[in-house]
UniProtKB/TrEMBL annotation:
This is Uncharacterized protein YecT (DUF1311 family). Pfam families: LprI. Residues 30-130 form the Lysozyme inhibitor LprI-like N-terminal domain. It comes from the Bacteria.
Length: 138
């Protein structure tokens, strides 16, 4: 009985010490991911990269809408406020949509990969939408 308790305690320590995020996996070749853990890590990295691009573009777009509001007639101001509201709603949509998408593999090891992939895809699309808002004539 003591052996079983000791073994269980050791297993818990192993689980606690297991890396949780991809920052601990610099040796993964995302062009040749072979196992689920690597594929999930790579999908997470894609999402992280897409999110960084989104945040950079959002700041540019928000700065532009703020500048447009400053130059606008008082009756036509509100571009920045509308952008902020849209972005907040979009984040809520993205997260809910991707959680829903993950249900294809609910409870399985593939679920996080599906969610990260969905988030990366929708985030890249949103970045393009934000870029469109900064083009002249908009």
């Amino acid at each position: 009985m003591k052996s079983l308790a000791l073994l269980a305690a050791c297993g818990c320590v192993l689980l606690i010490d297991a890396p949780v995020s991809g920052e601990d996996r610099p040796d993964v070749d995302c062009d040749n991911a072979q196992v689920q853990m690597e594929m999930t890590y790579c999908a997470e990295q894609d999402f992280i990269a897409a999110d960084k691009l989104l945040n950079t573009q959002y700041k540019k777009t928000r700065d532009l809408t703020r500048a447009r509001d400053e130059d606008a007639d008082p009756s036509t101001k509100g571009a920045e406020k509308a952008l902020v509201a849209a972005q907040r709603a979009w984040v809520t949509y993205r997260d809910a949509q991707c959680a829903s998408y993950g249900f294809q593999a609910r409870g399985g090891s593939m679920e996080p990969m599906l969610i990260y992939g969905c988030q990366a895809d929708l985030t890249a699309k949103r970045t393009e939408e934000l870029k469109e808002l900064t083009e002249e004539g908009n």
